[in-house]
Structure formats: structure tokens, C-alpha cells
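re the bet — no i am not wrong, look at it urself. input seq straight from the record:
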Amino acid sequence: MEIVISMKDVWLRYDSRQDWALREIDLTVRRGEWVTFLGTNGSGKSTLVRLMNGLVRPTSGEVAVCGKTLCDSRNLLDIRQAVGMVFQNADNQIVGVTVQEDTAFGLHNIGVALEQAECRCRAVLQLLGLSEKKDHPPHLLSGGEKQKLAIAGILVMEPKIIIFDESASMLDPQSAKQIYEIMSELHHKGCTIIQITHEVEEIVTADRLVVMREGMIRFDGTPLEAAGRLAVFTDSGLLPPFSVRMHDIAAQRGLHWLNASEMEWAD
């Protein structure tokens, strides 16, 4: 399957007097994958995904997105159109006076024809359940609806890759569930999903799990592979998922337990 993101021996620091934010990063992401990056605050996961759409650039090493290298500034516009990012706080992304205007903002900026922009916006707002509120001011929306609006502004741009950076962490459980359902539907339709989180219970839906600590990749594999290795979590300062902890306790007491590939994740 096509490689859409490639990083080779990437190092990054924001200031020569500071420690490295990223070190020795070698990573590839393939089209259609759902990759979840997990780590504590300061582990480097958010810095890493900001490389993926050119918000930051590496101090050394090579980053390529959809075949275009980040080192060539002429590629930045194409890269940012290919990679959409949904941030933790939706208010930071909302700029329009109405839901419809906000959704169409990016399309107007790149010169999409009015009729085509309206068509795209109509389809996306319907998909996200915001059609009836298209004329509402964004500040009247709930937290979950604001996050959906932020996603709408990304989806209308038709990116190949969407990054969700702690996008449900500020929402109530029901709204967070709706955001995950949207992510799952986009993934099912073939979109490449990059998820950033520090919540270990959120990793079950991913195809791949990348665990970070101190700016380095400490694990890269499937969630089920991680389930059989308690140290994947504890060595990175993370509390393992409940099911993993129970599996480890049972093993220490000599009790029979399903192996990692047969385990079900517990909420």
C-alpha cells in the first residue's frame, strides 16, 4: 500500500539551547491506516504530527508527505492541503459568523467556485448532523457541535490525511463518542487517520499504536501486540489499560488467561 508519510532519521529542537523535542524518528504511514500516537505530556507526540503538515520543520532528517518533501518550502501549500488537522480546542479553529460560513472558509481561500463550495458544505454538514444549524452562530453550539464544525471545515477540503490532536479530550462522554464514530466512519471510507492521545483506553480502534517518550518512538506495533507487553506502557510513564493490568496480575498468580490476541479490551 502507498506510503503517504515518511520520516527518516528526524531530529528537531525549537532552540539550540534546548533539549531535542524529537530524536532518531524513523516512521512510515500508509494510505488508509489509522495510527494512534500515545504518550504523556512532553513526550513529543504533538510535535511529531505537526511535522506532518509543515507547522514545524525538522532540524535534520527528511520528512515527505504524499511524495513531497518538507525541506522544499514550495511544497508546503500542497502538503497542508493534503493533511487536515483537528485541534483539541475547536474555538481555535472557528472563524466564521455562521456554521455555513465557517465550513466554507477554507474553500473560499483556495478559490473554489461558489456553487461547488456550497455543494461540498451541504454534504459535509449533513454527514455531521449540522445541516439544521447551518445559519446558527458557532458560539451557540455545544462543545461537541463545535468540534464537529471544526471537522467539517477540514472535510470540505477533501484531505488525504486527517490528524485528530486530542480532539475529544475536552468533551463530555457522549460528545466524545460521537467524534470517535465520525473518525471510524472516515477510516472506513479510506481516509488515513492520525490520532494523538494520552488516554490508553482510546487505542483499541487503531490499526497501529506508536508510543512515545522523551521525543523518541518506544513502540510501534498493533494494540494487541502492546496488550501482551505491560512495559510498553509503564516504561513510558503510562497506566496500562485495565485489561492489560488484569492479565498481568493473573499471570503473576499463575492463573490461566486468554493470550493477548484473544483478549477483549475493557472500557
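see?? The mean pLDDT is 87. told u. also Residues 3-221 form a domain with the Rossmann fold fold (CATH 3.40.50.300). so pay up
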